[in-house]
Amino acid sequence: MTVLVLTVLLQVFMRYIIGSPVTFTEELSRFLLIWLGLMAASYAYRQRSHLALDLLILKMRGRQKVVLNVIIHALIGLFSISVLVIGGIQLVYVTYALEQYSSALGISMGIVYIAVPLSGVAITIYAVDFILQELGLRESDMVTETATSEEDLHTG
């Protein structure tokens, strides 16, 4: 994030203050944003801080709640494997096979796109971990649990 901000600031400074824009900063900031977005998505999922519609979960108790949570995390894991991991690996392979390089930086586009399967692997690992936690096969490593019932929301 720091490198991204510094890159954009350098571009703004060079373009508007000096009057001579740097050629690589726009491309570098775009690539850093791709990496930042995908890695942040997997981190946010791990922290359970993604936007979620939990109206149905809040109404459930006991076994129903566990089953629904397992289904949700299983669907997230399946999406992650099929789209991010498999699709991302295919994307990286094609860009390496076609020898695609970025125009300003001259780096292989496979390096840029490797963020897709990496974030997919992380999300898949987290989904499996959450399923194991829901089934009671692994303890939660979260320091503070989020409110998951209406009583917690009203008393909190």
Give the total of beta strands: 0
Q: Uncertain regions: pLDDT < 50 for 5+ in a row?
A: 143-156
- End-to-end separation: 34 Å
Order of helices and strands: HHHHHHH
Cα Rg: 21 Å
Spatial shape: elongated
Mean of pLDDT: 89
Derived from helix and strand composition plus strand pairing, the structural class reads: mainly alpha
Task: Please provide a written account of the structure.
The chain is mainly alpha-helical. Helices cover 71% and strands 0% of the residues. It has helices spanning 2-18, 25-46, 55-59, 62-97, 109-113, 115-134, 150-155. Helix 1 (2-18) packs antiparallel against helix 2 (25-46), helix 2 (25-46) runs parallel beside helix 6 and helix 4 (62-97) runs antiparallel to helix 6 (115-134). It starts with a helix and ends with a helix. Mean pLDDT is 89; it is low at 143-156.
List keywords for this structure.
156 residues; mainly alpha; 71% helix
In short:
It is built from 7 helices and no strands.
List the SSEs and their pairings:
Layout: H1 2-18, H2 25-46, H3 55-59, H4 62-97, H5 109-113, H6 115-134, H7 150-155
